[in-house]
Amino acid sequence: MRITNSMIRNNTSNNMSTNKGYVDTLNTQMSTQKKIDRPSDDPVIAIRALRLRSSLSEINQYYEKNIPDAESWLEVTETALKNMESILTDVYRQCVNGATDHLKESDRNTILTNLQKLREQVYAEGNADYAGRTVFTGYKTNKSLTFGEDTSDTSYNITQKLEFEDITQKTYYSGLSSVPTTDDLTAGNLPAGNVEDHTYSRVRLAYDNIDNITQLQYKDANGNLQDIEGMEITYLDADGNTQTATVSYNVHNYTDWQNAQNLNVGDNEVIFVKETGELILGKNVAAYMNSEKPDMVVSYDKTGFKKGEVRPEHYFDCTDTTNANPANHITYTKEDQEINYTIAFGQTLAVNTQASDVFDSSIGRDIDELTDAVQMAITAHKKVSDIENLMKEEKYAGEEDQALLQQWLDAAEKEVSYADDNMKNLYSEGISSFQSYLSDVVLAKTDVGSKGSRLALTKSRMSEQQMTFKKLKSTNEDKELSDIIIDYTAAYNAYQASMQAASKAIKQTLLDYI
Q: Dihedral angle at the C-alpha atoms of 433, 434, 438, 440, nearest 10 degrees?
């Protein structure tokens, strides 16, 4: 086969171009330290790189953003629960102190002061927030758990579901004594009333100072809702015979109920007291409820909330009716609202704890009743002390004045006996109640700790996966600089040799052989 100069030139040019292209490729690799510059350089590496980069990006999202965010949320929640546990423990201790038989004046004042301060703090921890998001309010992270200030124009219609276990005993007192004035003693007036106690079964709503009840129902044997007013009940009369009666329902202000009926409730009657937010059950009604154990549903209107009271939308089905235009009313439905973070491939974690599962709406009401009980005892003891001081005054040293004052003192001491007994009983019940509240908080804190442990394990696994995928990505895409330099040197030498060979080959012509 005859080799022409043209063939030599073409082959030489092709070889030089090939070597030069290889040098250029290695030069690019040296600059980028990557195996390929474009997908067409190696489609297999390119496809694998896309998959690894996508997986690594997802891992980085979990490890560097989602997991730290979830950790912070859980830390804020755990801190708030620890503080709430401390507050409830303090209330529990006050209950233990108040349940003792003998308390001094200073002891009662200390209990009162402590309870008043704890009442202000009890739901404050529920307003804990992380990055501007309230952690205990479900999806409504832009709303605090409680009202931040007293409000007189905020209105809600609230639907509260009650169970028969919510029926408790409460003692009310009428005919409370007073300290005689100078006019009373001059006129020889005797104490106006005789203190009496009245113990009833009652159901307490979540709020006091209710406007009115719009619906009061119970579930019958078939699970259907029926109005309590007009409900047919059966009971045993004094002779042990079964009787049937119809329940009557009345609404009272506390003062009217006390003045008009001396705090009496008919055996087949249900009374709603607006100021206290209580449904008071007559003897036969209470017996029927405890026997049949029906659930109740109460809908009521409330206007005006005190600072620190819980917002109804976090606990109940309700409608915000503050706006005068019904079209602008906002309806809330109580439901589980878990905030889930995706912390790994196909793995989510519910980071939030809902206030209704931890901060019972009855906690504040219980503390209020404990405060009222100790305040009643303090007031009663002060009446005795004031009357005793009057008896020591010289102007009342006469036998008639002393006899008159003694009657006032007897009435006051009877009130003291009732007040001390009421305080002891109520604080004894508080021990059990606040143990239950503490148990809920401790359980929630344990749950948060468990979530934190799971999150830590996932974080450790994500860290290892991040390192693994970074290594795989590097192995697939990156090239060692030392290897590139060796290949580049070899390629460059080959390129230089091809140019030298070309310079010699192309110089030769047919004239060199003549």
A: 30
| Residues 501, 12 contacting (CB under 8 angstroms) | yes
Tokens of 307: 């600072």
State yes or no: pLDDT of 280 exceeds 60.
yes
pLDDT of res. 235: 80
Beta bridge partners of 202: 168, 280
CB-based burial label for 507 (10 Å; 0-12, 13-18, 19+) = exposed
Asked if residue 192 lies in contact with residue 213, where contact means CB atoms within 8 angstroms, the answer is no
Q: pLDDT, tens digit, for every residue of 292-349?
A: 889 999 999 999 999 999 999 999 999 999 999 999 999 999 999 999 999 998 899 9
Distance, CA of 87 to CA of 125 (rounded, Å)? 10
120 token code pair: 């202000």
* Tens-digit pLDDT profile for residues 164-213: 889 999 999 988 888 998 888 888 888 877 888 999 999 999 999 999 99
Is residue 352 within 8 Å of 416, Cβ to Cβ? no
Cβ burial, residue 359 (10 Å; 0-12/13-18/19+): buried
CA 386, CA 375: separation in Å to the nearest integer? 16
Bridge partner residues of 244 (DSSP)? 234
